[in-house]
Amino acid sequence: MTPKRTLLLCILVFLLAAPAAAGSVARTITPQEGGLDITLTVTGIPVGGIVETLPDGCTWMETDHPADRTRVSSGKVAFAVIGEETINYRAQGPQDAAEAFTGTWEDLLTGESGAVGAGGARDPGSGAAPKEAPGFLPAAALAALAVAYRWRCSR
Amino acid sequence: MTRRLLLLACSLCLMAGMAAAVPCDGDGDGTLTAPELATAILDSLDARFMGGTVEAPPSADLQDAAFVHTHWDGRALTITDTSGRTTTLTRPLRRIALFNSDTLDMLRSLGLEPDRVVGVSKYVLEDPVFYPEYQGTANLGSTWSPDYEKAAGIRPDAVILYASISESSCADIEKTLSAIDPEIHFFRFDSYRPAVYADEARTLGLLLGKKEEAERFLTFYENATGTVAEVVDAVPVKDRVPVYLESWNDYKSAGKGSGYDEKIQLAGGRNIFGENPVEYPVVDPEAVISRNPDVIIKIVGAGETAFGGYSDDDRSSFEQVLRAIGDRPVWNQIKAVRDGRVHIIHTDVIGGPDYFIGTAYLAKWFYPDLFGDLDPRAIHQQYLEEFQRLDYDLDEHGTFVYPA
């Protein structure tokens, strides 16, 4: 295999492998009459924690998560994750508040953490900002692939 | 140096005394239940993100609790190592020091995170091609010349030593380090002996939270060893190929019960010195001629034959060794020499945890007609890529067997 082909293959492998490398939590919000249904989809986090911050104007209603794994206080809700892959909860508030939900997650087995809804994870002990913005890794790999392809074609 | 060791010992003793209980086990009954773990997680999140005033567990306790709940069913783990010693752990091992580099290979096969290894033997640091990820790790010296100050200074929670070799040196290391830090757990594993190989992989997998990874590795390993065993088991004992095996020291062979004797048998051969009571006897060249082996195996990679292996791509030294065996006085009358069945093999693929690659080569050399489809090189490449996680192409690098 030529070095150029190896480089292209490496970039492609990196591109495909990156999204599956770490845990993540995605948030889906469905407006309902008088409130919002929120679904958190937990991927690759067998044991961890999630804290959601409800936007101003929203109030907590209920969840299907076990009561002894949920804690609500001052506009925030904490979920203990032990094997669950989906958490549904409901908040009362205006439908245009959907964009204002924020949250953070932690994986207690790997020490990684990240922002809910974002694709990236940050290493234990790093600063407050997630290491990668959503989709950064695939985008960077795609850009590298494009550069490598142009470089190869120009020779 | 003694003063510094004493100071270190005193400070470690002061820090010792952490209760040996499962972390976050709220009712202290010895079992961390899911509700207890959930409470600990919520208390921690509450204190850090929600302004709560409840007493939260330290993050290290919480992470240890998550490990114990996930990998040990929420209970303390009691394991027995290869020396027969039983140890009970209530927390995962996060700072492991290894004087045994063979076990380091096995841990890599199990997917252990390199940052859980805080100290390695000097041999690991002398081999940057095979151990690239450990080159910045603390150098513990060797089993025969340990660096106690370094070993204690890295504050390991576990030290792994050999079970069956260098027993007195390993006992000295254990005695000295446990006097400095009584909290260190000591484990004895070999990771190179076929008889205990699979058991050790399973025990280490359980110990390190790599149970599934251990089973995955053992499926690969048992497929490789099983393929050979299935065929050679059908070869009647009287028809087994007579083999002369010689280590890197000329005329030093393998006697009864030695590791190499066991490997010859696993590959279906009959060791012509297999009845010698000395483990590694120096034999008379005349005795080799009179026993007239069908196959000669010469091991290189140490002593005067310290070449080949992962960091040497030059085969010329292997050729010289092969030629020198044929040139020994009267050895041209030995069947193996006459028939061109003298083979050189590097200790990297026969003497350690990757011995099953070497036995696959031996089997193919002993019974070329029965093992036409067996591809030891492919087993080796898969082992390196999939389990040792090395970017190493055997087509381009390394010298392990000759003729290839």
Walk me through this protein's architecture.
The complex is a heterodimer of chains A (155) and B (404). With 155 residues, chain A is of the alpha+beta class. Chain A has a domain at 24-115: Immunoglobulin-like (Sandwich), CATH 2.60.40. Chain A has helices at residues 3-17, 136-154, and strands at 24-32, 35-43, 47-53, 59-63, 70-73, 76-82, 86-92, 102-107, 113-115. In chain A, the strands form two sheets. Chain A has a five-stranded antiparallel beta sheet with strand order 5-6-3-8-9, with no helix packed on it. The longest helix of chain A has 19 residues, at 136-154. Chain A is globular. Residues 1-21 and 125-155 of chain A have low confidence and may be disordered. Helix content of chain B is 41%, strand content 12%. Chain B folds into three domains: 16-71; 80-209, Rossmann fold (3-Layer(aba) Sandwich), CATH 3.40.50.1980; 215-402, Rossmann fold, CATH 3.40.50. A five-stranded parallel beta sheet of chain B has the order 5-4-3-6-7, with helices on both faces. Chain B is built from 15 helices and twelve strands. Chain B is elongated. Chain B is of the alpha/beta class. In chain B, strand 1 (77-80) and strand 2 form a beta hairpin. The model of chain B is unreliable at 12-19 (pLDDT under 50). Chain B has helices at residues 2-15, 34-49, 59-71, 101-109, 122-125, 148-153, 167-180, 194-207, 211-232, 259-266, 285-291, 316-326, 335-338, 355-366, 376-387, and strands at residues 77-80, 86-89, 96-98, 117-120, 138-139, 158-161, 185-188, 241-246, 269-271, 295-300, 342-346, 401-402. The chains are: A alpha+beta (155), B alpha/beta (404). The A-B interface holds A 46-49, 51, 66, 68-71, 73-74, 76, 78, 80-82, 104, 108-109, 111 and B 34-35, 37-39, 41-42, 44-46, 49-52, 62-63, 65-67, 69-70.
